[in-house]
Amino acid sequence: GAEIYVNNVFVAGACEDNLKASKASAFKQALEILQKHCYSIKQNPYRDTIKIEKSNNQLICGIVKTQTSIDDKKLDASNKGYKMMKMMGWSGGGLGSQQQGREDPVRQVFTYFYLLKNDRTGLGNEVSNLDRNYCGQLMRNYRDSDDIRELQFEPTFTKEERALLHEFAQRYGHRSSSYGQHGMRRLIVSKKICTDAILQEILIYKNTRYMDHYFIQVPETKYNLFPDFSNKLSL
């Protein structure tokens, strides 16, 4: 069997055919119980991320966002665009004289570029190797901004540069973690934001920056106060 405790208090338990099934059942029960009495916070899996990469000795920053409404599926007869194209004589396949165009929709990506700057002089994007001063200024700029999006450093940074970025991220109070294998290693840096601040920014101030980044479900006893946040979250 499996049991779940929160702060040494029993919440739920289950005994199924095997340990894996018992854990899954206990987790499901515990989640249902906790969501009745506690606030639930979930990061939006399609939130904006600041992508930073090196290209031709330049540091390039941009915001990447993937639209969830566009699926990686080919158009079918239920799609309005499909119907309009059929009325115009399209018979299927790629567009162009040789049908060389792609048949599946392009996933829409929005980007814009900006440079993290020094208060006195521009930090600049001309860089061949990141040094300690550059990494420190980059992380200070991130700390002092009101931006809550993660920084994603692409595999174009060397192992030594990632180590420096890790060091200064920790120094200025950020979270940092790496993932990926060998030449595809990436570094993610994010701000440490307490749950009380997230709840206040969304429920009280309706801060769109936070509302784009997090989903919230209030406990049942708060449904009447925050009806817009009563939809059940699957965590």
From TrEMBL:
SMART domains in alphabetical order: G_patch, R3H
Single GO MF annotation: nucleic acid binding
InterPro entries linked: G_patch_dom (IPR000467), GPANK1 (IPR039146), R3H_dom (IPR001374), R3H_dom_sf (IPR036867)
Positions of the G-patch domain: 77-128
Domain R3H: 129-193
Gene3D superfamilies: R3H-like domain (3.30.1370.50)
SUPFAM superfamilies, per database record: R3H domain
Superkingdom of the organism of origin: Eukaryota
Annotated PANTHER family: BAT4 PROTEIN-RELATED, G PATCH DOMAIN AND ANKYRIN REPEAT-CONTAINING PROTEIN 1
Protein name stated in the entry: G-patch domain-containing protein
Gene source species: Glossina palpalis gambiensis
